[in-house]
Amino acid sequence: MCPMPQGDHVGVEGRTRVCAHVLDLELSAPAPGLKRITTDGRWADRACVLVRILGEPLGLDFLEIPPAGLSGAAVIQLELERWMPRLRQILGIERTQANRETFGEAIRALGSTAFSRAHQEFMQRAPRCSVVVCSRDRPEELRRCLSSLLIQDYPDYAVWVVDNAPASGVTRIVVDSFDAKMDIHYVAEPRPGLSRARNAALRCTLDGDLVAWLDDDEVADHMWLTELMRAFAGRPEVLAASGVVVPAELDTQAQIWFEQFGGHSKGRGFAADLFSLATRSRQSPLYPLPPFGVGANMAFRTEALRRLGGFDEALGAGTPSQGSEDTKIFTDVLLTGGAVAYWPSAVTRHFHRRDLDGLRRQMRGYGSGLTAFYTALVLAKPSTAVSLIRLAPHALHDVYSSDSLRVATVGDDFPRHLLAENRRGMAAGPLLYLRGRVQDWRAGGLR
């Protein structure tokens, strides 16, 4: 178990103890060695590695770092062994031929893959699009996020920053500092709430037919926007897409526990998938949720989003329910006949909450947001209650059973009071949603 710091835990000789180093590993390139102590004095005995082959993410892996460290060659060999089945498919190597030496030779000779060719080809015809970042008085986080948008390999896009209920002018100052570096626009939304901020962007004349959404506590991989937009290419039925969200750091035990619970990507993995009404036999649009995507890394056909009425302003951060505005809009797409693509080659990195109290609030918010979402569905279409009743036994098993998929990835050290907090949030969600609706009605903004 990693020590649970309230801030950074500084150990002997001024070293900063963290739970795990976080890094990318490209299998087709020489790898740096892996040591317990980094050049900036951060100390960990394991690493969380995002493994790629010519840019395509294969998955996340945890490596134990011995006291003497690992050479670059040793790291590559360990990951070749770990990802051999997937690499066999990519490289077209038969099982009888597959060994580490064969893979090493094939990868060294590799000039391209089907993925890298598709990525490059799409860049030649990529349509203009918009990226929206909603923020509220977090200048350093916003600056870091926007800096990651500067290095996108996507050829033609505009960025819109929505300043949500600002208490100062710091967001505008950050946006202005990027004015000469990118096509960037500033929008102020005086009413607090993430859904209100998102809808403020939808009322703007956004560039292109597609809009991507990124949170200010994330950084985008340089291939993120190209890959997220590629999910729509040649698929007119796809109205929404979502990528994968991996940790930007794993410094504290709270961040490790959040990943154990599924992180933002909830164990979706790195295999692309397509959801629609035609797939409801293997995955209900209503439960288990959310298999379709996450608001921290998503995109939509802009007019489809507007036709659906945008985001429910009684859901999401800044409302009593605290979440699930993204879950509802994905489900709305599905229930109205559209398709949602899960596209894990579109990668963002998220800075999770570092302290246990922040994680506790997040777990409660996930619970309240979930049942608030179901309340919103039933209020909009009462017949939905019949489908939810049929799914109730499955849901109750997941919530209360010790062998459900919901808790399959949590460790023995995972605090059970966090699961209880999540259940308390679920119990409160319907009333919190109604409270949010009343607040909107009183403000004259009910949608």
The main sheet comes to: 9 strands, mixed
The number of domains is 3
CATH topology of the largest domain: Spore Coat Polysaccharide Biosynthesis Protein SpsA, Chain A
The portion of residues forming beta strands comes to 15-25%
Count the E strands. Answer: 15
Q: Percent of residues in helical segments?
A: 25-40%
Mean pLDDT: 90
Count of helical stretches: 14
* Distance linking N and C termini: 46 Å
Write out the CATH superfamily name of the largest domain.
Spore Coat Polysaccharide Biosynthesis Protein SpsA, Chain A
Class per helix and strand makeup: alpha/beta
State the CATH class of the largest domain.
Alpha Beta
Overall shape: it is: globular
Low-confidence stretches: 4-12
CATH architecture of the largest domain: Alpha-Beta Complex
